[in-house]
Amino acid sequence: MDSFDASASGDSPSTSKSLKSNFKSWREIIVVASKFLKWEKPYYPVVVFGAITFVFLMIWYLDPPVITGVSMFMIIICIFDYLIPRVSPLLFPETHWNSEKEKEFSSACSGINSARSFIHKSFNDFFKLKETNPWLYVAVALVSLSTLSWLGNQMHNMMLLYFATMIAASLPGLSHHGLLSKGAEAVSRFGKKHR
Predict the structure, then answer these.
(1) Do the beta carbons of residue 118 and residue 9 sit within 8 Å?
(2) Number of separate domains in the chain
(3) Is there a domain that residue 3 lies in?
(4) What is the distance between the alpha carbons of residues 27 and 108, in angstroms, rounded to a whole number?
């Protein structure tokens, strides 16, 4: 998420401060999660992908109906949302918070805000395309939805969700290590060669 330009994505200091205040009780967990997602140590990707795989294997093994699965997921979110603010001060005393953690927390909040702004801007740009170029809008929508529909028919929905989750979880690490920008440069060079 570091590669997003703050000015281009609408990331302002006030929205970052608002996000930081909203996540204040989660800050220690966000700092740890940020370090894991950025792959600060060589074995962190294995831990992240292993945890995601474990969760999906449990879902596959339990095979709950959709409504039950969504309800259980929301129950877990509600329990965490209730417990973390109450347990966090006991597990992570204020005295252990330092400037390095504050910097990591600010960076993580900025990354979350930039990603949120980028997604919002992408959707807005796509829907503006409907007004500016309706034919391209329909073509992009039909090709994207047809491809998604074909993939959903070829692959089990949980497997598709698993791959999408793995890709989303790998983006911060790839971005932090500069691999996304290198990939974009390679695609750009390849595109220029074949023009």
Answers:
(1) yes
(2) 1
(3) no
(4) 9
